[in-house]
Amino acid sequence: MVRVLEIKRLFFLVHVILTVAIVLSLCFFFYKIYTYEPSQKIGNKLSEQIVAEESRTNELINIDAKSLFDKILKSGLFGSAGKWNEDDAQKKAEEENKEPPTDDTLEDTQLNLKLIGTIALSPKDRFSCAFIENSDKRITAAFAIGQEVTDQVFLEEVYPKEVILLNKKSNPPKKERLKIEDKSLDLLSAKADEKTTKSDAKETAPSSAEPKSKQMDLNRDEIVQDFFASYADLITRVKPEVYKDAEGKVVGITAKNIGEIPLAGKLGFKDGDVLTAVNDEVIDSKEKIIDLIKKYSDVTLPAVKVSILRNGNPMEITYKIQD
Asked: Which among 2, 165, 175, 254 is most buried, taking Cβ atoms within 10 Å?
């Protein structure tokens, strides 16, 4: 009987303790609900985020840009481009042999081919090419490295004034030279000297002596040949510039050193001439220049008229193109 009473008291005590715990939990829960302030919590989180962002910004500012750049390159993200080094590239370019080989075993080709001109970036550069005339087929075309020039004859190397051909007709295949004819070069040099002399003589005369318009008769085949011979100099030495008037309006295109190109001298251009129109189509923007180049690049045109400014005076030159 005594034991039963003790058990009952124990269960009653446990019941009282649980009841008190539940009451305290409820009181604490309601206290949190009534004392909760959302704005304060959000403000604290925002301040923590701002502090974190500022610390990250400070870390980024303290990072050495060059070391970071070097790490990105070494990571291989940009492939072989990331391994490029200016000094190594310059040494490699200097080491490349851009002069024709002096091997006496190379003979001049006996094929009926004529070298008109070359674009020689380096002997075997994939962007190098040669303009070669096949006299048998009366065809002139541009050939890239490795391309077949004629039957079983391939372009092997390109230099400023000659190319190396790989003739697979012979057994075993052999390399042969094809040079630009010396007569063509002498002719261009003589014409350049003649134009230079005439230009010097004209420059000593007053500007009023310049005619306002003139006509020139040109041979189509000769102009094409001169163009190919001067092409490399045109794209590497001449630096065209947009010419603007006092109000900043585009009125044409000019080049300070155009007189150095024999073809330009043959066409009557001088250093500082401003090309303002072609066939009365005015050059008033950079886009117009590109449009005119595309439109009048056809060598079959019978005539072309250009308008220029020379020493501030307008001039017109009409080219009659004959076959």
From this structure: 165
pLDDT, one tens digit per residue, over 68-99 is: 777 776 776 666 666 666 666 666 655 554 56
Where are the alpha helices (H) located in 75-181, listed in sequence order? 86-95
Token pair 């042969």: residue? 176
Phi and psi at residue 45, to the nearest 5°: -65, -40
Torsion 317-289-322-271 (CA) sign? positive
Do the strands 213-219 and 313-322 form a parallel or antiparallel pair, or are they unpaired?
A: parallel
Q: What is the predicted pLDDT for the residue at 207? A: 45
Collapsed DSSP state (helix, strand, coil) of residue 98: coil
For residue 283, count other CB atoms closer than 10 A to its CB.
22
Please enumerate, as own/partner, the contacts of 129-132 that have beta carbons within 8 Å and a separation of 24 or more: 129/158, 130/155, 130/158, 130/163, 131/228, 131/231, 132/163, 132/178
At residue 27, the pLDDT reads: 81
pLDDT of residue 249: 86
CA separation for the pair 308, 216 (Å, rounded): 15
Distance CA 98, CA 111 (A): 25
Give every residue of the chain whose pLDDT is below 50, as ranges.
97, 204-208
pTM score of the predicted model = 0.36
Q: What domains does the chain contain, in order, with CATH numbers? A: 107-180 (2.30.30.830), 213-322 (2.30.42.10)
Q: Say if CB 120 and CB 159 are below 8 A apart.
A: yes
What pLDDT does residue 71 have?
Answer: 74
Is cis: bond before 302, omega within 30 of 0?
Answer: no
